[in-house]
């Protein structure tokens, strides 16, 4: 409209493009890191970046499950409980030994768990079988949530809140608060196993210190990337995904257009629980124990917060796996930077809240630009 | 040296006091401290310790969430050649790291035992007595240890006690509601044990309006014990409302931890292994005179901690 | 006579696309001004600017000769403008009375004076001869009733300028008459009215002056006597139109597509028998509340029915909506905003919603995007949907008529055997209506059966082969094309005669 | 018999409530004594008062995750003011409400003026408010002057102060929602924001008001709870946002806006507290308590669903009179 010189206009257009693209949160993360790097040089050290990435994978998988539920306009608060329950279940099955002092009072003592460990301890492919059992448990949790939401038309919030209460209490009850350790190496490797490691440094060093070797490609990374890719295809490229989004946008219209609304809602909750279970598997593996308290505390707020910062709408119909990917990335980078700032423990929460708000404000700016954009 | 201090939360006086003691001692000695608060999330704690390792710290002091995660985190540190000291909560095995521990269960047993004995002494020899225990968050190992200690104390007097368990989730409001209900349900109480001293004000709010908040020796006094040894407990024991509290020697533990880590760093030792036990004790109305100043809460009290 | 309101060079752009360009005209006091134009011509946008809902990109307005720049709808209300929006703007969770007074409740001692509100609401409603309880929740009213409530809301404000944006789309002839009487009455009391409608005969009857918009621009204006209907049409669409209805290209063939026997749902419909043949357009007429939409919902499997059978092409139909769709049924509901469209989704996404499975490829049903692009683009051309880009423009940014076309297109992509159309041309301009009629005719010509529900008797008489008339949940009779007779059909609908 | 079934179904929530009371009453008869019932209501007040405010926010279609932190921060600042200026408890109460209003205003500013989604704003303020409080106290407990407890444990006309505050708040919110224009406009806003704007309502004001009300309620709830204990611990109120939302939703508020009542919030909070305390009364194993509680809440929601369906059926439109064929 104005007669500004052409190159400037292009530059501005480019900036706007950047702001409006799907990768916005990625750019935001990069910008954030670059902004802080001069003050917090450790933020961009390879060691830290590797660490940030390793923190990202399990959270990403859980957040992807949540993204599907958010896409239909629901919310899944039971993911943490699903993690707790499935991790305990899997660990009980494969643990190599259990301390009677901790577990003798548990309802599973004697038949499922003995001092010689669980039924699958030392069994061939025991880890695989245990994971299968965890999967079944996750599916059951998802089915319960999904059926209650789809069949009884109950609000997802309350259904999954109740599920959270019940399943996490159930997990605690099963082990009477005990953490189940002594897991086989095959299992633990899932949480930290390196596939490709790199070392930056002088070649002639006789013995390379362990901490100078950076895990570049790890099992969690491979698993998370596979899940993310599959989820991306599923949500944004398949018929199923389109129907999920349609339900989120207008359930009535979807129903009248022949979308199997109930079935899809149930499927989405199952998906969410299964994703939670896979994420939980990685958590349990790297902590080397099944824990009834895993996924508690403010974990859920992290998961939902990451998805929402990515751009997924809580009201349904607007969700992309790639958004969640970048949202989670921003979240872990933020957490890492908060650590790096070395704030006192009393200030960290305030700064965290501030950063979340700033990110959201940028998003608002972006939406506004989108609306006013002259195409 | 550059020392990472990773703790699990700062929500009770005990942790705040430990935190203060450790950070101040290290700073005074001229070391720089990197603090990491895991806010009760083990995963976050593991990430934070990895983060510290990645930053290249010289040593780590850890207050873990529980024994199992402690093992993993200690391994994480030692395999990266960073010496580590575990404060207060013992790992499930003692193979690595310097471990400074107090036995929560044993201390709880002593403190609870003291009030149970008082209750027995005050009652006819065959009467069935009613004991109330306020339990912490069931997901917290300390809460479980303390519950176990109490149970062990009760087991010493077979057939003598009916026990009412009251959940608190480590939350004053929850404890208030539940305790009030428990007292209404069964108003005759012969002894009470709270898994943490921070709940004494809550207990008082429930008992006082019912005329059950009495000093030791007064008619209707309920023998009352807690655990932690904080300033409020000290004050209440001195006033006679509370009879005993289990004490961990916070200053001893803090000093031992700091010394151990500094020693390891200076010696260039990457995997020191040692268990330093804090025997702990119960401060009771009986030993108040001689042991008062062994309790961290009483020191704080003397410094005017509660006079704000 | 003085000018109440004058617009001077008003323009508005959405996403850089002009919806109104340099529109100037004046409204005389105590007159009825008709504004006509095709769907998307910019009528509603213009009214939204007058009503303070939308800010003009440029230009300005004068109210009684003074500059008028509303900051929001409240400003418009304050100076005496009442606005009946095209899309209903009622709060379905509140009662009728609350809807009438939502922007200013009469109070007693700080609290809402319910007695006064209910009384006054009843009075306002009775001006429209509505006798329902003002405390009833709007969500429970039929679309027609809602529209009347919307009108009542405008009336109770004693405004000096009333804007009616297609107020009769859900009204029966009788209610329309009543509304017109009310408008005449208001005019004689000195009120000024702007009336927008696609029913040109109504415009001709009611209005004193005419303004014609095309593509956002004012193309002509004048007094009503200068605008016979053919001229209106020519100014609107820029060309002549042969007639209102396309010639029917075929005669119904014998085979039965839909057969319903003895459908009964207590309290709703009673013993309904119905057949639709291949290539037949069956008109279903009745007054508001006659139960036509309910019958359609039962036929489509959306509502249950206690007794009776439905069969499509000889196969009995049971079970959920999905089975009905799969068997070849399609249903364009009367409430496109709530049941038809995903308002935030793009036109293309809306078009493919009912036939998504057909776009799946491979074991994971990956969507074949090329085919989606190709089919939706073809559908856009076929239906002449006016959208800048069907893949990015959301349905909510389409004009009402174009939204309706999207709903029809959604089903058209499935190529169904039986099309149930509930008020398919509601809010659609003459040109687009003609296109929809042609579309219906083509579907019939290809052998599809059509059941068309409409409250516009002319349209049914123009298109249908047979008209079935309902009254209070029952079928009162049917009239074949050669016997079509307005009086007789209306009499059946009012339940005055039965066969 | 048929009428009984009909009655049960159409009042299923109330019937359910009575059943719970009876169930626990049979197992522990003291549960039904006035003292115990009063105690239930007293303990419901904490979550209940906050749920009243939350209901208002939910009606607008928003959410307020910061209530748990407001419960902590508002009484804290009030307490500091009481101690520094020697204010009486009543004045402290007012300070807490004012602080609550301020914190709510802060939320509202970001939501209404800067147009950030409520979930994110209140998630951020959840951290900021708590962080600010922790910073103020250096993460130690805060002891109120002794008069605070006198207030919290006092009775007015034989009614415990917490119950009184609960009742007054409930009535105030009820009247505001039901009988004032501002209240009805909140419903309108929640039903259709765009339509509200077109109807000329001051949508910004309506939305802002809701967040302020919610924070004020959270502040009251925190202050009243703390006044019973006399000491504020750093973890106080943490995670309570879920309890509060659960009570409001159980009381019929929808996260999608447009519905919810003050009465519902009171009922929701009381129902949950009844079940909780019933479990304590009957001495159920600690591990089983949350499991049973969850089941009870679930059953209550199912009962409510049945009631809703019955209501819909009853109100369903009839075109022809029933029974005439
Ligand atoms: N909120 C909006 N955002 C973007 N574009 C819009 C919006 N509202 C209307 N438009 C566009 O503005 C143009 C004019 O629309 P308008 O609703 O004024 O048409 P109309 O004349 O009222 O049509 P109809 O007769 O179908 O109601 C259309 O091209 C439409 O797509
Ligand atoms: N009181 C009411 N409660 C619930 N829904 C209603 C009520 N009144 C009308 N409806 C709904 O409004 C729609 C219109 O129903 P109606 O039977 O009037 O259809 P119709 O005969 O096709 O008339 P029209 O389409 O002209 O309104 C139906 O979907 C019906 O369910
Ligand atoms: Mg229009
Ligand atoms: Mg209809």
Task: Give your account of this protein's structure.
The complex is a heterotetramer of chains A (375), B (308), C (499) and D (325). With 375 residues, chain A is mainly alpha-helical. Helices cover 66% and strands 3% of the residues of chain A. Chain A has helices spanning 6-20, 24-36, 46-71, 79-94, 100-103, 126-151, 156-175, 185-192, 219-237, 239-249, 251-256, 261-287, 299-310, 321-340, 348-372, and strands at residues 194-199, 213-218. In chain A, α3 runs parallel beside α9 (219-237), α4 (79-94) runs antiparallel to α6 and α4 (79-94) packs across α12. In chain B, α1 (13-28) packs parallel to α9, α2 (42-55) packs parallel to α3 and α4 packs parallel to α5 (141-155). With 308 residues, chain B is an alpha/beta fold. Helix content of chain B is 44%, strand content 21%. Chain C folds into two domains: 3-236, P-loop containing nucleotide triphosphate hydrolases (Rossmann fold, 3-Layer(aba) Sandwich), CATH 3.40.50.300; 256-493, 3-Layer(aba) Sandwich (Rossmann fold), CATH 3.40.50. Chain C contains 17 helices and 24 strands. A six-stranded mixed β-sheet of chain C has the order 6-9-10-3-11-12, with helices on both faces. Chains in contact: A-B, A-C, A-D, B-D, C-D. At the A-D interface, α7, α13 and α15 of A face α6, α12 and α14 of D. Chain D: Keywords: Cell inner membrane, Cell membrane, Membrane, Transmembrane, Transmembrane helix, Transport. Chain D: Pfam families: BPD_transp_2.
Provide a compact summary of the structure.
The complex is a heterotetramer of chains A (375), B (308), C (499) and D (325). Chain B is α/β, with parallel strands linked by helices and 308 residues long.
Class by helix and strand content of chain B? alpha/beta
Oligomer: heterotetramer
Report the uncertain regions of chain D.
none
Average pLDDT of chain B: 89
What is the topological layout?
The complex is a heterotetramer of chains A (375), B (308), C (499) and D (325).
Chain A lengths: L5 H15 L3 H13 L9 H26 L7 H16 L5 H4 L22 H26 L4 H20 L9 H8 L1 E6 L13 E6 H19 L1 H11 L1 H6 L4 H27 L11 H12 L10 H20 L7 H25 L3
Antiparallel strand pairs in A: 1-2
Chain B lengths: L1 E6 L5 H16 L3 E6 L4 H14 L3 E4 L4 H13 L4 E5 L8 E6 L1 H19 L6 E7 L5 H15 L5 E7 L4 H14 L5 E4 L5 H8 L16 E5 L2 H9 L4 E4 L2 H18 L5 E6 L2 E4 L3 H4 L4 H7 L6
Parallel strand pairs in B: 1-2, 1-3, 3-4, 4-5, 5-11, 6-7, 6-8, 8-9, 9-10
Antiparallel strand pairs in B: 10-12
Helix pairs in contact in B: 1-9, 2-3, 4-5, 6-7, 8-11
Chain C lengths: L2 E12 L2 E12 L3 E6 L5 H8 L7 E6 L2 E3 L4 H7 L1 E4 L11 H6 L5 E2 L2 E2 L1 H14 L15 H13 L5 E5 L7 H16 L3 E5 L3 H7 L2 E6 L2 E7 L5 H9 L18 E10 L3 E9 L3 E6 L5 H8 L7 E6 L2 E2 L4 H7 L1 E4 L3 H5 L6 H6 L7 E2 L4 E2 L1 H15 L16 H13 L5 E5 L7 H16 L3 E5 L3 H7 L2 E6 L2 E7 L5 H8 L6
Parallel strand pairs in C: 3-10, 3-11, 6-9, 9-10, 15-22, 15-23, 18-21, 21-22
Antiparallel strand pairs in C: 1-2, 1-4, 4-5, 7-8, 11-12, 13-14, 13-16, 16-17, 19-20, 23-24
Helix pairs in contact in C: 4-5
The site of one magnesium ion (MG) has 4 residues of chain C, from helix 9.
């Amino acid at each position: 409209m104005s007669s500004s010189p052409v190159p400037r206009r292009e530059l501005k257009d480019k900036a706007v493009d950047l702001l409006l693209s799907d990768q916005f949160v990625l750019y935001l993360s990069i910008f954030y890191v670059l902004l802080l790097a001069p003050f917090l040089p450790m933020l961009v050290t390879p060691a830290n970046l590797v660490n940030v990435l390793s923190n990202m994978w399990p959270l990403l998988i859980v957040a992807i499950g949540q993204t599907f539920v958010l896409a239909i306009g629901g919310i899944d608060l039971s993911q943490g409980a699903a993690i707790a329950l499935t991790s305990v279940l899997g660990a009980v099955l494969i643990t190599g030994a259990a301390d009677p002092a901790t577990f003798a009072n548990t309802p599973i003592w004697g038949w499922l768990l003995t001092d010689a460990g669980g039924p699958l301890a030392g069994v061939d492919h025991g880890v695989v079988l245990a994971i299968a059992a965890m999967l079944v448990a996750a599916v059951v949790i998802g089915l319960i949530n999904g059926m209650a939401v789809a069949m009884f038309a109950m609000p997802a919030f309350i259904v999954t809140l109740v599920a959270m209460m019940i399943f996490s209490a159930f997990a605690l009850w099963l082990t009477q608060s005990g953490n189940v350790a002594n897991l086989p190496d095959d299992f633990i490797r899932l949480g930290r196993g390196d596939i490709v490691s790199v070392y930056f440094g002088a070649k002639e060093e006789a013995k390379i210190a362990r901490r100078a070797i950076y895990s570049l490609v790890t099992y969690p990374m491979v698993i998370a990337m596979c899940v993310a890719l599959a989820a991306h295809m599923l949500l944004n490229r398949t018929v199923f995904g389109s129907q999920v989004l349609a339900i989120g946008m207008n359930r009535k219209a979807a129903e009248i257009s022949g979308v199997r609304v109930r079935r899809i809602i149930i499927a989405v909750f199952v998906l969410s629980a299964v994703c939670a279970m896979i994420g939980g598997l990685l958590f349990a593996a790297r902590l080397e124990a099944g824990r009834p308290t895993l996924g508690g505390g403010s974990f859920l707020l992290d998961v939902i917060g990451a998805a929402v910062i990515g751009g997924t709408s809580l009201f349904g119909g607007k969700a992309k796996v790639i958004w969640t990917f970048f949202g989670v990335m921003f979240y872990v980078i933020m957490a890492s930077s908060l650590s790096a700032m070395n704030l006192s423990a009393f200030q960290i929460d305030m700064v965290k809240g501030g950063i979340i708000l700033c990110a959201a404000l940028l998003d608002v700016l972006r939406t506004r630009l989108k609306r006013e954009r002259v195409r | 040296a550059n020392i990472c201090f990773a703790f699990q939360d700062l929500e009770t006086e005990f942790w705040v006091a430990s935190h203060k003691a450790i950070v101040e001692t290290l700073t005074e000695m001229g070391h720089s401290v990197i603090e990491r608060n895991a806010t009760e999330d083990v995963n976050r704690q593991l990430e934070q310790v990895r983060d510290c390792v990645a930053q290249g710290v010289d040593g780590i002091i850890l207050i873990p969430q529980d024994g199992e995660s402690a093992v993993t985190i200690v391994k994480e540190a030692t395999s990266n050649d960073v010496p580590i000291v575990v404060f207060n909560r013992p790992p499930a095995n003692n193979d690595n790291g310097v471990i400074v521990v107090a036995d929560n269960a044993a201390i709880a047993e002593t403190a609870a035992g003291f009030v149970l004995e008082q209750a027995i002494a005050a009652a006819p020899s065959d009467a069935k007595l009613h004991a109330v225990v306020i339990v912490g968050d069931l997901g917290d190992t300390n809460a479980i240890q303390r519950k176990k200690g109490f149970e062990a104390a009760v087991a010493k007097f077979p057939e003598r006690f009916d026990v009412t368990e009251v959940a608190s989730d480590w939350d004053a409001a929850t404890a208030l509601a539940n305790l009030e209900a428990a007292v209404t349900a069964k108003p005759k109480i012969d002894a009470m044990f709270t898994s943490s001293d921070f709940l004494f004000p809550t207990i008082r709010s429930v008992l006082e309006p019912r005329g059950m908040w009495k000093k030791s020796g007064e008619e209707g006094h309920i023998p009352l014990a807690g655990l932690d040894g904080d300033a409020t407990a000290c004050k209440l024991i001195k006033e006679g409302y509370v009879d005993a509290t289990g004490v961990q020697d916070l200053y001893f533990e803090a000093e031992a931890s700091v010394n151990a880590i500094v020693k390891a760093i200076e010696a260039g030792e990457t995997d020191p292994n040692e268990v330093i036990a804090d025997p702990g004790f119960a401060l009771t109305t009986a030993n108040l005179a001689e042991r008062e100043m062994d309790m961290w809460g009483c020191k704080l009290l003397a410094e005017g901690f509660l006079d704000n | 006579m003085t000018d109440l309101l004058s617009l001077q060079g008003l323009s508005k752009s959405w996403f850089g696309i002009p919806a109104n360009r340099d529109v100037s005209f004046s409204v005389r006091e105590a007159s009825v001004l008709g504004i006509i134009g095709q769907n998307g011509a910019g009528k509603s946008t213009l009214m939204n600017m007058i009503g303070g809902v939308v800010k003009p990109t440029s230009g300005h307005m004068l109210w009684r000769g003074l500059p008028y720049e509303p900051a929001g709808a409240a400003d418009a209300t304050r100076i005496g403008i009442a606005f009946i929006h095209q899309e209903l703007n009622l709060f379905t969770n509140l009662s009728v009375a609350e809807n009438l007074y939502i922007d200013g409740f009469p109070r007693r001692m700080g609290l809402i004076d319910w007695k006064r509100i209910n009384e006054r609401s009843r009075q306002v409603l009775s001006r429209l001869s509505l006798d329902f309880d003002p405390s009833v929740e709007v969500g429970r009213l039929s679309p027609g009733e809602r529209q009347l409530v919307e009108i009542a809301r405008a009336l109770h404000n004693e405004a000096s300028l009333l804007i009616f944006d297609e107020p009769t789309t859900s009204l029966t002839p009788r209610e329309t008459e009543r509304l017109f009487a009310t408008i005449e009455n208001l005019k004689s009391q000195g009120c000024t009215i702007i009336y927008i409608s696609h029913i040109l005969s109504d415009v001709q009857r009611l209005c004193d002056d005419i303004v014609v918009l095309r593509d956002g621009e004012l193309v002509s204006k004048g007094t009503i006597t200068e605008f016979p209907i053919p001229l209106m049409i020519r100014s609107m669409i820029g060309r002549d139109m042969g007639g209102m209805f396309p010639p029917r290209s075929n005669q119904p063939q014998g085979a039965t597509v839909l057969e319903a026997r003895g459908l009964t749902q207590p309290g709703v419909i009673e013993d309904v028998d119905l057949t639709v043949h291949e290539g037949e357009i069956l008109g279903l007429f009745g007054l508001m509340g006659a139960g036509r939409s309910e019958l359609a919902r039962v036929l489509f499997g959306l509502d249950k029915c206690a007794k009776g059978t439905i069969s499509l092409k000889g196969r009995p139909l049971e079970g959920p909506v999905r089975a009905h769709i799969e068997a070849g049924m399609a249903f364009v509901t009367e409430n496109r905003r709530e049941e038809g469209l995903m308002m935030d989704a793009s036109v293309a996404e809306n078009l493919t919603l009912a036939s998504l499975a057909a776009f799946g490829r491979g074991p994971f049903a990956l969507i074949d995007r090329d085919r989606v692009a190709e089919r939706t683009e073809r559908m856009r051309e076929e239906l002449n949907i006016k959208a800048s880009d069907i893949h990015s423009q959301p349905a909510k940014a389409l004009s009402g008529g174009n939204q309706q076309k999207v709903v029809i297109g959604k089903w058209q992509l499935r190529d169904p055997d039986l099309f149930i159309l509930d008020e398919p041309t509601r809010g659609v301009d003459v040109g687009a209506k003609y296109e929809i009629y042609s579309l219906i005719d083509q579907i019939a010509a290809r052998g599809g059966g059509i059941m068309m529900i409409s409250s516009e008797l002319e349209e049914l008489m123009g298109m249908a082969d047979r008209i079935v008339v309902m009254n209070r949940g029952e079928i009162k009779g049917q009239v074949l094309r050669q016997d079509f007779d307005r009086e007789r059909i209306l009499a059946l609908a009012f339940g005055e005669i039965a066969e | 018999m048929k009428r009984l079934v009909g009655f049960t179904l159409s009042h299923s929530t109330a019937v359910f409530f009575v059943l719970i009371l009876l169930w626990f009453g049979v197992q522990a008869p003291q549960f039904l004594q006035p003292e115990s019932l009063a105690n239930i209501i007293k303990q419901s007040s904490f979550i209940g008062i906050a749920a009243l405010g939350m209901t208002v926010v939910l009606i607008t279609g928003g959410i307020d995750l910061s209530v748990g932190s407001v419960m902590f921060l508002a009484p804290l600042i009030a307490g500091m003011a009481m101690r520094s200026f020697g204010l009486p408890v009543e004045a402290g109460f007012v300070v807490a409400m004012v602080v609550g209003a301020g914190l709510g205003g802060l939320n509202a500013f970001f939501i209404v003026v800067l147009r950030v989604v409520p979930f994110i704003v209140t998630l951020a303020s959840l951290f900021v408010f708590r962080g600010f409080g922790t910073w103020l106290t250096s993460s130690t407990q805060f002891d109120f002057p002794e008069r605070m407890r006198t207030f919290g444990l006092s009775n007015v006309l034989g009614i415990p102060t917490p119950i009184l505050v609960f009742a007054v708040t409930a009535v105030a919110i009820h009247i505001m929602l039901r009988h004032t224009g501002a209240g009805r406009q909140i419903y309108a806003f929640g039903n259709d924001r765009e339509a509200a704007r077109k109807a000329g309502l001051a949508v910004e004001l309506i939305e802002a008001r809701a967040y302020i009300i919610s924070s004020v309620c959270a502040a009251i709830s925190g202050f009243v709870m703390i006044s019973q204990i006399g000491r504020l611990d750093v973890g106080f109120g943490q995670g309570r946002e879920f309890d509060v939302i659960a009570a409001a939703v159980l009381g019929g508020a929808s996260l999608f806006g447009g519905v919810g009542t003050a009465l519902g919030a009171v009922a929701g909070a009381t129902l949950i507290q009844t079940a909780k305390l019933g479990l304590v009364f009957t001495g159920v194993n600690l591990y089983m308590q949350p499991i049973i509680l969850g089941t009870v809440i679930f059953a209550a929601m199912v009962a409510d669903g049945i009631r809703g369906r019955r209501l819909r059926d009853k109100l369903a439109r009839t075109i022809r009179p029933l029974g005439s064929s």
